[in-house]
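Example 9 (inverse folding). The structure is encoded as follows.
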């Protein structure tokens, strides 16, 4: 049997110490406090970020939503980019090798067909011309001499024939006189041919002299000046030497057109004579009327594109060669549409730059009470720089090219135009 003392000892061994009961409780309480502190810190950071973004004021450019007009024209079925090119452009050079003595052009200068652009040293050509002219004079003088001798020989022949008829001299004398006439006649003919040769040589020397003057082949504008006086110019490349191959480059501004590369998957949307609109990168708010000239009947296998030539219907001095351009091909079927069909379009027209993607949705930011408000929209047809969208009212103020940081409710200040 267990004594009372043993029972008391056993109960003391089974009793828990108070410090052992409090330690786990204190550890759990510390973890909870740390988690609460971390949650408060994250919430405070998020709130601070939210207040910073929404409290920040954005300076924006405003655009106005407009109603689609009946005379706005057909919609765009395709857009492509390209460059302004000149169908008539030439780098002018001399036809002979020589040293430039004068260069009479500057970039941007308007020149006319036949105008002198440059001159080469013509000393050798003038000397050659003078030599041929002197040869002609000498040949002419010798022909005159033979002609005079021929006339005298003919008179001698006449007298000898009269003496032969009178049996005063032998017939041999008359035959010798005839031979002299024939020989002098041949000499005269030969000198005449020599004169023709000398005249041809003069013409050749004059052509060579003309090659020392470089003239404009057509009227246009000088876009590049490639040589200066004192340099050697040649129509043949000197293979890396100091010889120039051209004096300058002329462009006929009336021959400017547009070349664009159209993806071959969409080339069926383009037709000859199809109306289009061109917008230069340098002047994004200026739409230039144009039309398709031709579709080049070959494809570029490396780019999978087809080249299309487009005529510029409205010439303007601002249009320059090699400018970047974006072309909108207009709906060929809609070109014959009526004003009623055009007036039936629903929605408003806004600049394409005002339409952005946010969280997978297409939105525009309207301006109301100094705040930006995101409005989800559906886009329709393109009309040059404008897109048809639903949602905003006519006359609504929208943000052009919204910043990625612009959020719903952000404060905005409209930038003065």
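The amino acid assigned to each position is listed next.
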């Amino acid at each position: 049997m267990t004594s009372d003392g043993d029972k008391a000892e056993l109960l003391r061994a089974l009793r828990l110490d108070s410090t052992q009961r409090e330690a786990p409780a204190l550890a759990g309480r510390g973890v909870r406090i740390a988690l609460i502190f971390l949650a408060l810190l994250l919430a405070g950071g998020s709130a601070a970020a939210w207040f910073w973004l929404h409290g920040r004021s954005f300076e924006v450019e405003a655009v106005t939503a407009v109603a689609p007009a009946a005379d706005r024209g057909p919609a765009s079925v395709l857009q492509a980019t390209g460059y302004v090119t000149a169908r008539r452009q030439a780098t002018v050079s001399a036809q002979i090798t020589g040293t430039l003595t004068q260069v009479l052009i500057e970039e941007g200068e308007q020149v006319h067909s036949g105008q002198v652009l440059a001159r080469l040293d013509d000393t050798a050509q003038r000397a050659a011309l003078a030599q041929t002219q002197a040869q002609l004079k000498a040949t002419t003088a010798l022909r005159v001499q033979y002609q005079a001798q021929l006339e005298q020989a003919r008179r001698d022949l006449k007298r000898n024939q009269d003496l032969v008829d009178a049996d005063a001299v032998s017939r041999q004398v008359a035959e010798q006189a005839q031979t002299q006439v024939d020989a002098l006649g041949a000499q005269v003919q030969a000198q005449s041919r020599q004169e023709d040769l000398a005249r041809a040589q003069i013409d050749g020397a004059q052509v060579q002299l003309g090659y020392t003057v470089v003239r404009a082949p057509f009227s246009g504008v000088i876009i590049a000046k490639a040589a200066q006086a004192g340099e050697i110019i040649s129509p043949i490349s000197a293979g890396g030497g100091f010889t120039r191959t051209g004096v300058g480059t002329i462009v006929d501004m009336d021959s400017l057109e547009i070349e664009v590369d159209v993806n071959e998957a969409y080339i069926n949307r383009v037709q000859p004579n199809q109306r289009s609109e061109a917008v230069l990168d340098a002047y994004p708010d200026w739409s230039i009327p144009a039309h398709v000239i031709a579709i080049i009947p070959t494809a570029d296998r490396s780019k999978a594109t087809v080249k299309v030539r487009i005529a510029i219907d409205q010439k303007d001095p601002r249009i320059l060669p090699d400018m970047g351009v974006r072309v909108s091909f207009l709906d060929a079927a809609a070109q014959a549409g009526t004003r009623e069909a055009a007036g039936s379009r629903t929605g408003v027209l806004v600049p394409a730059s005002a339409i952005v993607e946010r969280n997978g949705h297409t939105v525009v930011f309207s301006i109301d009470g100094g705040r930006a408000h995101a409005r989800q929209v559906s886009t329709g047809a393109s009309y040059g720089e404008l897109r048809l969208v639903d949602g905003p009212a006519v006359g609504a103020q929208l943000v052009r090219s919204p910043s990625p940081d612009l959020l719903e409710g952000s404060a905005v200040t409209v930038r003065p135009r």
